[in-house]
Design goal:
Blueprint: H1 4-36, H2 40-47, H3 55-67, H4 71-84, H5 89-102, H6 108-128, H7 133-145, H8 154-161, H9 164-167, H10 169-182, H11 186-199, H12 204-216, H13 220-233, H14 238-251, H15 255-267, H16 277-289
Helix pairs in contact: 1-2, 1-3, 2-3, 3-4, 3-5, 4-5, 5-6, 6-7, 7-8, 7-10, 8-10, 10-11, 11-12, 12-13, 12-14, 14-15, 15-16
C-alpha cells in the first residue's frame, strides 16, 4: 500500500498538468472556430484575457484585430507572434498586411516608415517560404503600387510574378493582368483575365475579376452577364455581393443597388476568405458621402 502512494501522486500530478494544458488550449481552439466564422470581435474577447499567450494565440489575435480594422493592435500582436516563432511565413505575411493598412493613416513620414516595414515583412514571408502564393501576391502588389522610394517598382513586380508561373498558373495570369492595367494595356489585361478564368472555370473569384474589369471598362452588359453567371455558380457567396457593389461604385452606376448589396453583405455570414466588414463599411460610407 505504501508503494502505491508515489504512483498515486504521480497520477494526480499528471492529471493536473493535463488539465492546465487543456485549459490553455481550449480558449485557442474556441477562438479558431470563431475566426473561421469571421466573428473577429468574439475572437478578441476570448484571447485578450489570457494571461499567457502562445505565438499562435498572438497571431490569431493579430488577424482578428485586422479583421476588425484595428491595425495598430494587429501589428502589436503579430509582432509578438513572429518574435515567438520567426519561422512562420504566413504570420509575416499578415504582419505585412497590417503595416500596409496602417501606412494609409497618419502623416507622410509615418506612412513611409510603415510601408517600408510592410515590404520587409512581405519579403521575409517569401524568404521563409518561396512557395507561399499569398505572400508572393501580397509582395507583388506592394512592388506594383509602391513608389521606388520605399522599394516598389513595376519591374520588380514583373520579375516576382514569374515565380507564380509554375506555382499557380491562374494567379500568374491575374498578376499579368494587373501589370497590363498599370500600363493601361486594356486588351492585354482582359486577355490575361480570360486566360485565368479558362484555367479555373469553377473559381468564383476569376469570374468576379473579369466582371469587375468589364464594368470598369464600360462594358456593362457583358459584366452583368458574368455577374449572373457567378450568381448561378455560387448563389450564396457573400463575396459576390461585395464585388458587385464595389464594381458599381467604381463605375459610378447603380448606386442605390450598390448600397443595398453592401447592407446585405454586412448581414451575411462571412468567412476569413471574404473581405472584412470594415471594407464594406468604408465603401458604404463613401457611397453615402458622394
Amino acid at each position: 500500500m505504501k508503494q502505491a502512494v508515489p504512483l498515486l501522486r504521480t497520477l494526480i500530478l499528471l492529471c493536473t498538468l493535463l488539465t492546465v494544458g487543456s485549459g490553455r488550449a481550449e480558449p485557442l481552439a474556441a477562438a479558431r472556430s470563431l475566426f473561421q466564422r469571421a466573428d473577429y470581435r468574439a475572437v478578441i474577447e476570448r484571447l485578450v484575457p489570457l494571461r499567457e499567450k502562445s505565438p499562435a494565440a498572438w497571431a490569431l489575435l493579430g488577424k482578428a484585430y485586422y479583421g476588425e480594422g484595428e491595425f495598430a493592435k494587429a501589428i502589436d500582436a503579430l509582432e509578438k507572434a513572429v518574435a515567438g516563432d520567426p519561422g512562420r511565413s504566413d504570420w509575416w505575411d499578415w504582419l505585412g498586411r497590417a503595416y500596409g493598412r496602417r501606412a494609409e493613416k497618419g502623416n507622410i513620414l509615418k506612412a513611409l516608415g510603415r510601408a517600408k516595414k510592410a515590404r520587409e515583412a512581405f519579403e521575409k514571408a517569401v524568404e521563409i517560404d518561396p512557395n507561399n502564393v499569398e505572400a508572393l501576391v501580397d509582395l507583388f502588389l506592394f512592388y506594383l503600387e509602391a513608389p521606388r522610394l520605399i522599394g516598389g517598382g513595376a519591374e520588380k513586380a514583373a520579375r516576382l510574378a514569374e515565380r507564380l508561373r509554375q506555382l499557380d498558373p491562374a494567379e500568374y495570369e491575374w498578376t499579368r493582368a494587373e501589370l497590363a492595367k498599370k500600363r493601361k494595356n486594356w486588351a492585354a489585361a482582359e486577355s490575361h483575365l480570360r486566360r485565368a478564368l479558362e484555367l479555373e472555370p469553377r473559381e468564383l473569384g476569376r469570374l468576379l475579376d473579369l466582371a469587375a474589369f468589364l464594368m470598369q471598362r464600360g462594358r456593362y452588359r457583358e459584366a452583368a452577364s458574368l455577374f449572373a453567371q457567378a450568381e448561378r455558380l455560387a448563389p450564396a457567396a457573400p463575396k459576390l455581393l461585395f464585388v458587385r457593389a464595389q464594381a458599381y461604385a467604381e463605375a459610378g452606376r447603380n448606386r442605390a443597388e450598390a448600397r443595398r448589396l453592401l447592407q446585405a453583405y454586412l448581414e451575411a455570414r462571412l468567412t476569413p476568405d471574404d473581405p472584412p466588414r470594415w471594407e464594406a463599411r468604408e465603401l458604404l460610407a463613401k457611397l453615402e458621402r458622394d
